[in-house]
Amino acid sequence: MLKMHSSFVAFRYVKGSPEKGELGDCPFSHRTMLTLEEKGVPYNKLLLDELNMPEWIAEVTEGKSTIPFATELETGKWLYDSDKIVPYLEDKFPERKLGKPDEVPQVGANLFPAFMEYVKTTDKADEDKKREALIAELKSIDSELKKSEGPYVGGQDVNAADLKLGPQLKHVIIGSKAVKQWELPKELTAIHTFMEAIQKRESWKNTYYTEKYVADGWHKKLETMGVK
C-alpha cells in the first residue's frame, strides 16, 4: 500500500477525451502520473483534447501549450514539462525515492528519436536503415536491463529511469506495429520481461490507456506531419 500525502493535491492536466472520460496516449503525461502514483501523491486528472486546447494554457506554460502540466494547490505553483515536473516531485516528496535524471542510469535516451525517424520515413531503402537504427537502440536498452538485477533499470524496484522508459517502450512497440507492421524481436528478452513486470504494477494499472489510442494517435500524428 502506497503512503498517501494528504498535504498536497495537484490538478494534473493530461491528454485525453473529456467527452468519454478516457485517458489519452501521451507518454509524457504517463510518466508524470506514474511518478505521482509511485510516490503516493494524490492528484486529480483533468483531461484535455490536444487539438482543442484552451487559450489560457499558454499563459501558465510560458506560451508552450504543452501537455502535461499541473497546478499545486498548496502553493498555486504551475508546473509543466515532464522533465521539470518529475525532479520537482522528487525534491518535494523524498520519502519514496525514485531518483533524478542525474542520479539514475540514462537508458534509452535515443529511443524516441530513433523511433520517430523510423515511423515517419516513406522511402523503402531508408526505412530498412532507420529500422536497423531503432533495433540497435533497443538492443542497447536490452543489454542495460540485463546488467541490472532486474527486471527494472533500478533492479528489483522501479526508479525514475523505469518510469520514463516504460511509456516510451509502450509507444514504440505499439506504434511500430501499427504504422510499419513491425514487432519487437522475441530475442530482446530483457525488454519483454521489463514490460511484463511494469504492466503488473498498480501505478501502471491506474494510469492505463488502450493500445488503440496509441495506434490511432501515431497515425494522426504522422498524418499532420504529411506522412502517408
From TrEMBL:
List the GO molecular function terms: glutathione dehydrogenase (ascorbate) activity; transferase activity
The catalysed reaction is:
L-dehydroascorbate + 2 glutathione = glutathione disulfide + L-ascorbate
GO annotation terms (biological process): ascorbate glutathione cycle
UniProt keyword annotations, A-Z: Transferase
Against Pfam families, the record matches this protein to: GST_N_2
Protein name listed in UniProt: DEHYDROASCORBATE reductase
Residue span, GST N-terminal domain: 26-91
PANTHER family in UniProt: GLUTATHIONE S-TRANSFERASE DHAR2-RELATED
* Transferase among keywords: yes
State the organism's lineage.
Eukaryota, Viridiplantae, Chlorophyta, core chlorophytes, Trebouxiophyceae
Family statement drawn from the similarity comment of this UniProt entry = Belongs to the GST superfamily. DHAR family.
> Which organism is this entry from?
Coccomyxa subellipsoidea (strain C-169)
Q: Which InterPro entries match?
A: DHAR1/2/3/4, Glutathione-S-Trfase_C_sf, Glutathione_S-Trfase_N, Thioredoxin-like_sf
Known SUPFAM superfamilies for this protein?
Answer: GST C-terminal domain-like, Thioredoxin-like
